[in-house]
Design brief:
The chain contains nine helices and seven strands; from the N terminus they run E-H-E-H-E-H-E-H-E-H-E-H-H-E-H-H. With about 260 residues, the chain is α/β, with parallel strands linked by helices.
Length: about 260
């Protein structure tokens, strides 16, 4: 699918992977629709300077169902070529020590809001017989580390949801892309140490530059890849988890303490 001049809706575009991808799409002269939880007055200026055909920023709180419904109702008739459900939250630590309020909020943002946005914008894509839904999962959706229980559950749900919808969309002109995101140098990634390190040695985790991952997403869109999976150490981890689960568990438990 071509990204030049495409109309692209990106959640969570004010930082991290969403921000890097928005900047990459600006260079492709895309039309960017960016619903954000907090105002970012400089973002529009930056993206226009990078070449975006247009930039529209509005307010959207993905932790609020009624707020999502309002946003969809106001925008559902628009011609959206790509919906990138990028926004997400991270929790971490022993399950009994995680705050229950944060758990509920994470599940709302990481999976319920993602489903809600897909539900709202898919009908117009199907009507036009054109479009792509990108859902942001994670290697945590396959690799189940201690201290990542709730986050991993949310990302496994994203993978399952995307695979199911992918089958529903066969021969419709609309497709999906599931990002099985590895470690990427973002603020959320750096926060893993704060949330996990009390019980889990995370020194083995290595992140790639965020702009490099934005380029990989762009390539996956252009090539109509359905799953963007990691390479290198984390790609090997996926294979080890699939084919040698006991060995994977032994390695992980060697870095865990209660």
């Amino acid at each position: 699918m071509e990204t030049k001049n495409a109309h692209i809706l990106i959640t969570g575009a004010n930082r991290g992977i969403g921000r890097a991808f928005a900047e990459r799409m600006a260079e492709d002269k895309a039309h960017l629709i960016l619903p954000l939880r907090t105002e970012d007055p400089e973002l529009k200026k930056i993206l226009l300077e990078k070449g975006a055909a247009s930039v529209e920023i509005s307010k959207l709180d993905l932790s609020d169902r009624l707020n999502i419904e309002r946003f969809i109702e106001e925008n559902k008739a628009r011609d959206i070529d790509i919906l990138f459900n990028n926004a997400g939250m991270l929790t971490g630590g022993l399950i009994e020590e995680q705050k229950i309020e944060e758990i509920y909020q994470l599940l709302q943002v990481n999976i319920s809001a993602l489903i809600h946005m897909t539900h709202g914008f898919l009908p117009q894509m199907l009507k036009r017989k054109k479009g792509k839904v990108i859902n942001h999962a994670s290697v945590s959706g396959y690799l189940y580390f201690p201290c990542a229980s709730v986050y991993a559950a949310s990302k496994a749900a994203v993978i399952a949801f995307t695979q199911s919808v992918e089958l529903e969309l066969k021969n419709t002109g609309v497709s999906t892309l599931c990002l099985v995101t590895p470690g990427v140098e973002t603020r959320m990634y750096r926060d893993i140490s704060n949330k996990y390190s009390k019980n889990l040695d995370v020194g083995f985790l290595k992140g790639m530059p965020v702009k490099e991952y934005a380029d990989r997403i762009r390539y996956a869109i252009h090539e109509d890849v359905e799953f963007l999976k990691p390479t290198g150490f984390q790609g090997i981890g996926l294979l080890a988890n699939k084919y040698a689960r006991p060995l994977f568990n032994r390695y992980v438990m060697g870095k865990f303490k209660r």
